[in-house]
Every structure is written in C-alpha cells, then in structure tokens.
Amino acid sequence: MGYSSDFKTRILFHNKKAKKGWTIRYRPWVVAHTEEFSSKKQAIKREKQLKSAQGRRYIWNELIPKIL
Fold first, then answer.
1. Selection from 64, 29, 53, 63 nearest residue 2 by Cα
2. What is the value of pTM for the model shown?
C-alpha cells in the first residue's frame, strides 16, 4: 500500500529497479486494487485507514475474496 502520483513508475521501481530493501523480497508485485483521490491529503488519509485494524479487516473480508 502506498501513495503515488506516478503509479506506473512506482510499480516499475518495485519490480525492476530497486536494488535493496523490503520491496525486492516480495517480487513480483502484482496490483490487486487501486483507488484514486483528487488530493494527496485524501489519499494519505485512506492509506492510514487501510493500515489500521479496521482497514486490515476490510482488506481481508472484502478485497482478498474478490481477487482469489
């Protein structure tokens, strides 16, 4: 999860260009869900919500079953 104003470049970096760090351990990254917001502030607020306990439950109960 994360905020990005350039989604394609972010995924490219995670899958190809990164040389070290957390993201290289879990390659290839596959996009399962995206949301768009009109402001960075709204996107960050939503990201924080999804990373909360309530947000994690939403991910596991609503999003994961739809992609499996």
1. 29
2. 0.71
